[in-house]
Amino acid sequence: MSIVAAAPTDYTAPGVEEFWQPLFGTDGPWAVTRPILLMVVATGLVVWWLLATTKKKALVPGRGQMGTEAVYGLVRNGIARDLIGSKEFMRFVPLLFALFTTILVNNFFGVIPPFSYPTFSRIGFPIALSLIVWVVFHVVGMRKHGFIGYWKSLVPAGLPKAMIPAIFFLELITDLFTRPVTLALRLFGNMFAGHILIVLFITGGWYMLNSGGVLVVAGGVTWIFAFVMTLFELLVEFLQAYVFTLLAALYIGGAVADEH
Amino acid sequence: MTGNIAILGYGLSAIGPGIGVGLIFAAYINGVARQPEARGMLQPIAFLGMAITEALAIFGIALAFVFKG
Fold first, then answer.
1. A133-149 per-position pLDDT tens digit
2. Which of A47, A89, A200, B40 has a Cα at 20 to 30 A from B31?
């Protein structure tokens, strides 16, 4: 924030420290920071939006209800039914819908001016979401196949006996470690990298605009690119919410599938 | 010249996923062009492949910041 306001003398590139923004409270792990406030605001917004657009349910939907139904339809038909299968998908639609809307609104906060901070660029938030998904897909898998049966179902049938331990080990690592870690890191990395790129373009452009000479032109071009990157970031933010929900549905679908 | 070699590492780690994501979307566009009605079926697969391939680049940027210090 302060890097834009101050007349620059020596440029320092934005880094990880831009994302640490405690609002009040102590400076330690219990500080109330900007992302947690945004998370609360986002949750409130989603709840308000859903209540407001579905309070008066009409057979011929109004504009608000139409929008809500479009988003719900995307998650329900486009993600849950396609990937979990038409038999069991309804159980998981609430979770997937909550994941999608929460991530989407929080991501859009990254480019909407009064918020201007993608909540998921702090690693703790994506970790929490991916832990929920991780617990859910293991638990539903164990409920369906039984504890032993679930771990057995990791290995595809018809494998030569000698291969089974190695494949089981690989699948175990994938299920217990790689999947939750990549799920969290992907969302975090995209939000973090995208936001830092916008900050870099804007502060760098500001620095060049203030330097005088030919650099003023370069600074103007940089700001145009900052605008383009912001638009691109909008696309990425939607895509990441979609991909996170898609992968959560895929993992759940894999756990409840009759056979791999 | 000053800088950090971890960022170079990120650049290297982005090459593979860059090629991979390109191949995935090339195949997706090919598929949709040949059979437009298969779009709904191909789209989740394409994005899934993209997400999995992209993970390597994401690891790269995360590790670049981890080892920057």
1. 999 999 999 998 888 88
2. A89
**Chain A within 8 Å of B54 (Cβ-Cβ)?**
yes
- The ipTM is 0.73
Cβ of B65 and A16 within 8 Å?
yes
Spatial distance between the Cα atoms of A103 and A112, rounded to a whole number of angstroms: 14
Q: How many CB atoms lie within 10 A of CB B58?
A: 22
Which residues of chain A does B44 touch, with a Cβ-Cβ cutoff of 8 Å? 78-79, 82-83, 246
Give residue B38's domain range: 5-68
Neighbours of A139 (CB within 10 A): 12
**What digits encode the pLDDT tens for the residues A232-242?**
899 989 989 99
Q: What CATH number should be reported for the domain holding residue B22?
A: 1.20.20.10
CA distances from B44 to A16, A60, B39 (A): 33, 30, 9
Chain B residue at shortest CA distance from A121: B62
- Number of domains chain B is built from: 1
- The reported pTM is 0.85
